[in-house]
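Pasting as-is:
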Amino acid sequence: MEPVRYVDLLNQRYRAQGFPPYEWTVNEPGELTPPAKPLDECRVSMLTSGGVSHCTMPVWDATARNDFRLDVVAPDAGGADFQVSDSYYDTTDAETDVNTVFPIDRLRELEVEGVIGSVAPRLWSGFMGRIYKRTHVSEVAAPALAEELHDDDVDLFLLVPA
């Protein structure tokens, strides 16, 4: 039996939709940098890309491409106050408990238990959808988000993909 050639199949699918062949990202390994201070002194923020939006915000386009929208989420938002809209993974568990893709309640518990120093004043949901403009992410969107994290004195940033 021949193995399934996923890259070829994806290229055929997207070419049929008018897209050029997909250029896979090749990431160079970076050095692991330990935190500058103990975890129980660190301010922590996080970002989910799982199509999670607070009920006060518009839902995500479940079939979006290159959606660079970033929603700010207040750290005291209730775990039940979210909606999930994504067509690229089974959202059943996320709809039942948003903490599976955006562990906001768990992060607050870590703060109360003294495991982390504090939850940052802003958490994030964004980069939802298929991102084909990776250069925009690396040169524009990610540096802009990094500035926001710097403004919030964030020591650790958790990335929570769906």
